[in-house]
Specification:
Strand content: 5-15%
Number of domains: 1
Distance between the termini: 40 Å
Largest sheet: 2 strands, antiparallel
Radius of gyration: 11 Å
Mean pLDDT: 90
Strand order of the largest sheet: 1-2
Helix content: 40-55%
Number of strands: 2
Structural class: mainly alpha
């Protein structure tokens, strides 16, 4: 399995679910789907580099970059 095998949209949706308290963090959700943890982390880091996700202290709990702009 390669990083490119994991759709960007799927990872972003997992991050949205975590923000709505509907599931585990994005890395945990990918691992639960059978993605190796190291690969899941690399995918999140890649999306952070592309400004599609961001995180505070841990990439395990990343959120979509548009999350803050949608808040009142």
């Amino acid at each position: 399995m390669r990083r490119s095998d994991i759709p960007d949209e799927h990872v972003i949706e997992l991050a949205r679910r975590w923000q709505r308290n509907e599931g585990p963090g994005v890395v945990g959700a990918l691992v639960a789907e059978g993605v190796p943890e190291k690969l899941a982390l690399r995918k999140v880091e890649h999306l952070v580099d592309r400004d599609l996700l961001e995180y505070g202290t841990s990439p395990y709990h990343a959120w979509p970059t548009d999350y803050r702009s949608n808040q009142p």
